[in-house]
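Query structure, 196 tokens:
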């Protein structure tokens, strides 16, 4: 069954497009203020995958989106107290139902990676696209999330010439002493089979 799934996954094609404003077709647009300009002449060279759930292990409440927009009410849950004043947003977020929402245009520097480094080049926010999946380290991701993520990544690789299959990394790869996401249950083999 798994072999059949991988075979079907290979047939996935992306009909998405990136427009002149570096926004992705076929997804929701909810602009965040948690970004700034990339350094001058900085290519987009990396895709960083994250996961988030608020509260941890709980899905479908809209709290991650509120965090990315700066509208999260800290009093809604005791676990939110350490998020007070946090200004963070990915370029794109994919929820458990496979719905994609874009918060920052791809040509802008979203604040998603924090202190980070890839191949000895620091500050990954400068040259990366951040994609958040609704999830956590110890719960498997949904099939529809893989399908949507593969579709998005195929589109991005087709639009930004410095992006390749080898330049898709986890948050834990670029910030190994701070982060663990998207965690051990994320199926890298499946994703890369779908993108090829």
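Result returned for the query:
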């Amino acid at each position: 069954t798994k072999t059949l799934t991988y075979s079907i996954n290979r047939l996935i094609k992306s009909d998405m497009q990136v427009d002149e404003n570096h926004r992705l077709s076929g997804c929701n647009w909810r602009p965040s203020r948690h970004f700034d300009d990339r350094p001058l002449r900085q290519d987009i060279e990396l895709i960083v995958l994250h996961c988030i759930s608020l509260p941890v292990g709980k899905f479908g409440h809209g709290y991650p989106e509120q965090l990315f927009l700066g509208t999260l009410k800290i009093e809604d849950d005791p676990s939110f107290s350490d998020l007070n004043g946090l200004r963070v947003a990915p370029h794109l977020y994919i929820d458990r139902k496979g719905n994609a929402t874009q918060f920052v245009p791809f040509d802008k520097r979203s604040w998603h990676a924090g202190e980070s480094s890839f191949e000895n080049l620091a500050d990954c926010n400068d040259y990366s696209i951040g994609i958040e999946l609704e999830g956590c380290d110890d719960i498997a991701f949904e099939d529809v999330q893989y399908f949507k993520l593969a579709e998005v990544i195929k589109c991005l690789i087709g639009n930004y010439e410095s992006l390749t299959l080898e330049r898709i990394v986890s948050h834990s790869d670029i910030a190994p002493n701070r982060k663990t996401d998207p965690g051990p249950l994320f199926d890298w083999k499946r994703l890369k089979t779908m993108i090829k």
